[in-house]
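Here is one chain, start to finish.
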Amino acid sequence: MGSNYSKGYLRYLLALFFLINVSSYMDRMVLAVLVEPIRAEMGLSDSQIGLLTGFAFAAFYAIMGFPIARLADNGNRKRIITISIVFWSAMTALSGKATNFVHLFLARMGVGVGEAGCFPTCNALIAELYPPKNRALAMGVFMTGSTVGVILGFVVGGFLAEAYGWRNTFFIVAAPGVFLALLIMFTMKQPLKQAIEDNIPKTPYLTLIKLLLSNPVYRLMVIGASFGTFATYGVAQWAPAFFIRSHGMSLSEVGTLFGAAYGGGSAIGMVLGGWVADKMQNRDASWITKVPAIAYFISFPLMLISFAVGNPTLAMSIIFIGAVFTGCVTGPTLAAIQHVIPSEGRATAAAILLFFTSMIGVGAAPFVVGLTSDLLSNQFGEESLRYALMIGSVVVLIASYCFFASAKYFKNPTQSCLLIHIS
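Its structure:
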């Protein structure tokens, strides 16, 4: 597919997908830095905050990924991306009008519905635009947009909240989505399916999902990514509140320092991980999953230490190093999954990954960490969140094991790796 377009246009598309991810994650993550003022105004518990930052977004984000992915596999991807951006931006703005827990919960659900159209669609397009030898790096560049969005959500969100209040912050961060939707509408060509697909009968959707989930290599990677997301997303959503409570930081301080440490480290890791995986799999194809396995394993002690130390500067430094390693996971994981699946099922495979990482990671992690913090509060008071985060980090070892186990299915560097046959 990539041969149909100039290199300049392909770079432009990848840059556009990068910016879409920036906007998506900025709108998604800004809530994390606004937790304390919202909690104070609405009188919410940590469990309720966990629902807002987790399941309110993740449930519909995960569920809507399936019908949108089916449309992306067979329909107008340009239109899907445009509508998705407009919808999640509108829902982000509506978050600023919320007057109670239910209103904010519904608005965050709407953000999840809109953003569900971004990941599967862009993921499938990149898989078709770039050959396997370059795919991990391209996926890494695309997903680096998520870390830039995290940085902007924390840094910009922290300063805006102090200057204009948390409600106006939602209005302001929603605005860039409108510009992006116009760019997509007027500058993106509607990508065409590969000609060879025209004569291939379409697989019934439930059959396609069953085929994907029955394959051991795909299943292992989905489980690994889900538990890895549980650990990393739980950190991302609750760490700002932890630094405010346990280290006495202000909103702008935690937004700037944590945003730079976590987001900056993740951005470096995403590009680095994709580059390393592309280079190493030319010698041994199994490195496409060994890179995530090693990165997750190293990140575990770093997570524990970052929450155990009493010096906030040291803690931020360790979070930065840990984020580099967890960032290394993203590009290789997405590339490995797309590498084993033919074109017809790529958006659906991404939607299944989206569902499980959303429900287990994005949805469950903030709630479980918040609930654990509430349960420990009688014993540890304001320090309960510190221990809840440390407990939640343990599951990253499950992720590491799953990626190590999946490596045996990647036999040699010349293998096409279409391990899942759809017919």
